[in-house]
Amino acid sequence: MEGFAHQLVAGIATGGIYASVALALVMIYQATHHVNFAQGEMATFSTYLAWAAVQGGAPWWAALLGTVFASFAVGVAIERVLLRPMRSAPVLAVVCAFIGLMLIFNSITGAIFGYAVRPFPSPFETSAPLLGGLVSGHALGSTAVTLAVLALVWAFFRHTGLGLAMRAAAYNPVSARLVGIRVGWMLALGWGLAAAIGAVAGVMVAPVVFLEPNMMLGVLLYAFAGALLGGIDNPAGAVAGGFLVGVVENLAGAYLVGAELKLTLALAIIVGVLLLRPSGLFGRAVESRV
């Protein structure tokens, strides 16, 4: 029973990372109706920026804050420079642009920082596990940070004028323009916010998986499974799906399929959702006449 509780708590902690990346994916999807395949590589590059700042002597939390602002600026720049000119491009062209962006960030990260596996420091390390040995200090701290970020994002979109304008621009850009909302800039801010959230997720997961240019590939797959499971058009559902995937991954890896096949479980979730319930558990099934 203690082993089950440990896996459950660890799954919740891991699910918080997946929930953050899933939320970032949904934010981009709502704005563009495309999945940002480069989300993981952008988060990896941001994590390396934080690592470089820490190695340069910056306090850990100051390095995180600086990385979040830098990632936000990079996300805005990507939308303005690369994606805005492609607003009327075919779907395949946009997908190719996202894949190209993923490869570019992966190559730049490796070229600048190298491909060696590096340890990433955690500000939550303790000498002994917490909560009766169920969870490590980093797992508990990273979960708290993730929940705080998700709460701030929820409050921003629900209770601020800028957040409401971004939601309007994502849901109905035509009507948003009619009431004076600058839709182009709202989409750019959405990209920046998604990049910032991804940076936090990358920094939180790096002490667990270690830092290397491909560290977010598996995380992105689990996050995509969580976004689909919760509903790719529902931010709250994607967050719930991310936590659920984290719990299922840990429990299944420990008691069902083994650690070697856990990544296959994410693929099974993706295929199962697409076949049985494409709108996800909390998404909306959209019907249109043709």
Plain-language structure description:
There is one protein chain. By secondary structure, this protein is an all-alpha fold. The chain has a single domain, classed as ABC transporter involved in vitamin B12 uptake, BtuC (Orthogonal Bundle). The protein has eleven helices and no strands. The termini are far apart. The model has no long low-confidence stretch (mean pLDDT 85). One of its GO terms (molecular function) is transmembrane transporter activity.
**Estimated radius of gyration:** 19 Å
Order of SSEs, N→C? HHHHHHHHHHH
Count of individual helical segments: 11
**Largest sheet entry:** none
Mean pLDDT: 85
Strand content: under 5%
What is the second-level CATH architecture? Orthogonal Bundle
Low-confidence segments, given as residue ranges, are none
**N- to C-terminal distance:** 54 Å
Secondary structure category:
mainly alpha
Number of structural units classed as domains: 1
Look at the structure and give the CATH class: Mainly Alpha
Provide the CATH topology. ABC transporter involved in vitamin B12 uptake, BtuC
- Overall strand count: 0
The share of residues in helices is: over 70%
User: What is the 3D shape?
Assistant: globular
